[in-house]
Specification:
heterodimer; A: mainly alpha; Fumarate Reductase Iron-sulfur Protein, Chain B, domain 2; 6 helices; 0% strand; B: alpha/beta; FAD/NAD(P)-binding domain; five-stranded parallel sheet; 7 helices; elongated; binds iron/sulfur cluster
């Protein structure tokens, strides 16, 4: 039994003042559709990877905007580029191309 | 105070009926031309109305009382087949055999319902237990119990918002305005009839903009335990027992969610009427980007068309609630009267933004 010591409490707040929006700007320039997302989750519901892994295009779209690059990197690894999400998006967003550009951006900026 | 003016109202739904009533009150003779054999339009197919749950038939009765006026000539099973400008008015041909003259024309052709078979991934017309909100109203109207095709009492029912609306893939980017609150209304009605059935509404946004709509939503939660899940359905499939397996993301939990329901109800949107297209071609009326008639101005000239002497009322210009439609019909009657009696009010101009910049992005 642990009777004393310290634990590190991670800050749960999104520090939007300090957010690094470099990657977001990079992707938005290549694929401005990123701005059209209404976070309905249709893409995630149809995604085969999402059933098994922590993978949600809707969340990726949010992580990117909020500058949460670590979470983004983790989620995006599971994508198989099947493009099912692009087929179902009610806003007609080219989701596949966004994921593609996020990967390119991550490489480019060496996040 | 009879005038010698005559107006043809094209469409005997609720907009046409109420406009006819208010035109007749100003001493104008009205031809109320309806292609079906009854007045009332879509309202005849709707049992109870949001947000009060009053019977739609009460509103129909109220509107019928109005069109009883002597100077309203009701023409049923009548279709406009030709229109020709004659002086300031129009010579109109009905059913290829009746000719009449009207000093002005009021178009009240309403809307059609989205054809749910176009959203193939939701399985309407493919799976037995997928129905539309309009089908559900018909079941309510019939007084029969809501059952699965297999004859069982449904234990779980799902309602899907925005079917054929707010969807580029379906070709309709606009919000149909009435389906959110219809979904809440129908969810409550299901619970009233079957208290032991679980009801789930799948939505992207709940648009409860009208007076008392939010109260209806709250009632659905407080008194009926209806569950609202924020996520748009990606696809539905059928299991071996006729159940419908839904795949959505529970976006507030951030996890994909699977749920099997016994009946799935699709809240279908409102689309431009086929009849509007036909009538529009006869007069040369312009449509807006979404296929509904284009009014002369978005804020001010909301009942005027691009054609002199032709006016609009009701859902032929955009999706509208019954309240909105009735109000719009009275406004249109007033606008038509202003035209016929040369009121200065119609001479006012406002700058037009012809190139509707909102839609230039795609
Ligand atoms: S389906 Fe399209 S609009 Fe909906 S969350 Fe995914 S990317 Fe955004
Ligand atoms: S492209 Fe990637 S995110 Fe989209 S459905 Fe396929 S695996 Fe999922
Ligand atoms: S009213 Fe609600 S269900 Fe209908 S299109 Fe608008 S948001 Fe969707």
């Amino acid at each position: 039994m642990k009777t004393f010591g310290y634990t590190i409490q991670n800050d749960r707040q999104i520090d939007f003042d300090a957010a690094d929006k470099k990657l977001y700007r990079y992707v938005a320039e290549k694929e401005p559709d990123i701005n059209l997302c209404i976070f309905c989750g249709t893409c995630t519901a149809t995604c085969s990877a999402a059933e098994f892994k922590n993978m949600s295009f809707r969340k990726i779209s949010l992580f990117l905007r909020r500058g949460l690059t670590e979470n983004l990197k983790r989620e995006i690894e599971s994508c198989m580029f099947c493009g099912k999400c692009t087929l179902v998006c009610p806003r007609g967003i080219n989701t596949r191309n966004i994921i593609f550009n996020i990967r390119k951006g991550i490489e480019e900026y060496e996040f | 105070m009879d005038t010698n003016k005559t107006v043809a109202v094209i469409g005997g739904g609720i907009a046409g009926m109420e406009a006819a009533t208010f035109l007749s009150a100003r001493g104008i003779t009205v031809y109320l031309i309806e292609k079906e054999d009854k007045l009332g339009g879509h309202l005849l197919d709707w049992e109870r109305l949001f947000p009060t749950m009053r019977n739609g038939s009460e509103v129909v009765k109220f509107l019928m009382d109005g069109v009883k006026a002597d100077n309203i000539k009701i023409m049923l099973s009548s279709k406009l087949t030709a229109a020709e400008k004659s002086g300031k008015g129009y010579n109109l041909r009905i059913n290829e055999n009746v000719d009449l003259f009207a000093d002005a024309v009021l178009v009240t052709t309403g809307y059609d319902l989205f054809d749910a078979t176009k959203k193939e991934e939701y399985g309407y017309g493919i799976y037995d237990n997928v129905i539309t909100s309009a089908d559900l109203e018909k079941i309510f109207m019939s007084g029969k119990a809501l059952q699965t095709k297999q004859g069982n009492v449904p234990k779980k029912i799902g309602l899907v918002h925005c079917v054929g609306s707010r969807d580029e893939k379906a070709g309709n980017v606009y919000c149909s305005k009435v389906c959110c609150v219809t979904g809440v209304k129908q969810a409550i009605e299901i619970k009233q009839k079957m208290p032991y059935t679980e009801v789930f509404n799948f939505y992207m946004d709940l648009r409860m903009y009208g007076m008392h709509f939010e109260a209806l939503y709250k009632k659905a939660q407080a008194d009926f335990g209806i569950q609202f899940i924020r996520g748009r359905l990606s696809e539905a499939s059928e299991d071996q027992n006729g159940g419908i397996i839904l795949k959505v993301e529970d976006t507030l939990m951030g996890k994909p969610l699977k749920l099997t329901v016994d009946i799935l109800v699709l809240l279908i949107g409102l689309i431009p009427a086929k009849g509007s297209k036909e009538v529009g071609e006869l007069f040369g009326l312009k449509n807006g980007v979404n296929g509904f008639y284009k009014t002369t101005d978005q804020h001010t000239l909301t009942n005027s068309s691009n054609v002199d002497g032709v006016f609009f009322a009701g859902a032929c210009t955009s999706p509208k609630t019954i309240t909105n439609t009735i109000t719009d019909a009275r406004a249109a009657a007033s606008t038509v009267a202003a035209y016929l009696f040369n009121y200065r009010s119609l001479e006012r101009k406002i700058e037009q933004n012809e190139d509707f910049w909102l839609y230039n992005t795609k």
